[in-house]
Amino acid sequence: MLANLRVAILDSLWPRTCSVEYCGKALGPGDGPFICPECFAALPRDEEGAFDETIFSYCAAFLYEGALPQLIKDFKFNNALYLTEDFAGEMALTVLRKFPDVVFDRIVPVPIHPMRWRQRGYNQSEELANAIGRMINVPVDTKALKRRRNNPHQSLSSRAARLKNLIDSFEVVEPKRLKDCTILLVDDVTTTGSTFTACVKALRTAHVRRICAVALARAVLD
Ligand SMILES: [Zn+2]
Questions:
Q1: β-sheet bridge partners, residue 189
Q2: Is 50 in the same domain as 150?
Q3: 109-155, pLDDT tens digit by residue?
Q4: Phi, psi of 165 (to 5 degrees)
Q5: CA of 221 to the centre of ligand 1 (A)
Q6: Which residues contact residue 59 at a Cβ distance below 8 angstroms, ignoring those fewer than 6 apart?
Q7: Ligand 1 centroid vs 36 CA: distance in angstroms?
Q8: Which helix (H) or strand (E) holds 185?
Q9: Which of 7, 71, 85, 197 is 20 to 30 A off residue 208, Cα-Cα?
């Protein structure tokens, strides 16, 4: 009741509009999401099945196309954390659809380096993981993995170069805690799955049982 009142007051002070840049449609009170239903339906879904690497599988909710690059940029760098629920809802559905038989013990977000955390004040993958955890009722372990060093921006590197750069950049903080667990890894954008691969390499040292991974969006290389 109080929460509803708070939302109603906030809505009257700052009427919400759709977060998609070229839309900006006003969202009435109680609409809930921050992306209007038309834009949300139009976001490109990743229709591929899960990608099976030798030791883990991964999937993505959306394709990194259409309105998503702008939305994700706002989400990652401009503090647009109000998009968390909209994004996490679709990721949770994707997990249930693509890994229907898997029972997860833990959700682990891909960590960012402490230096980036200080710049941004949050880790977008952790925000997504926490929301997904609430939705599918699985505990979230934000301290399971640690990022060892800050990698330079990698947009121009080849897959091999990215992988080499990344492969040793994660470590498990307390291996005992993850032994025999089935883990859902969560990241924002994946291109070739190389960040997931690097996390999996670290997680395997903790003798986990199984690892699946979900990204918010998958970027397709030309
Ligand atoms: Zn819209």
A1: 217
A2: yes
A3: 999 988 888 888 999 999 999 999 999 999 999 999 999 865 555 55
A4: -65, -35
A5: 27
A6: 46, 48, 49, 50, 51, 94, 95, 98, 99, 212, 213, 214, 215
A7: 4
A8: strand 182-190
A9: 85
Tokens 């997860």 sit on residue: 104
Q: Is 193 left (phi over 0), alpha (psi -120 to 50) or beta?
A: left
Q: Is 49 exposed, middle or buried (0-12, 13-18, 19+ CB in 10 A)?
A: exposed
Question: Residue 19: which domain range?
Answer: 1-42
What's the 42 CA to ligand 1 centre distance in angstroms? 9
Total domain count, the chain: 2
Helix residue ranges, H only, 140-188? 159-166
Give the whole-angstrom CA distance, residue 37 versus residue 42.
9
Q: Looking at this protein, which amino acid is placed at residue 19?
A: S
Encoding tokens for residue 8? 């109603």
Are 114 and 184 within one domain? yes
**CA gap 154, 170 in Å, rounded:** 16
Give the C-alpha distances (Å, rounded to integers) separating 108 from 67, 155, 205.
27, 24, 15
DSSP assigned state of 108:
E
Cα–ligand 1 centroid distance for 51 (angstroms): 31
Residues 39-96: tens digit of each pLDDT: 999 999 999 988 888 789 999 999 999 999 999 999 999 989 999 999 999 999 999 9
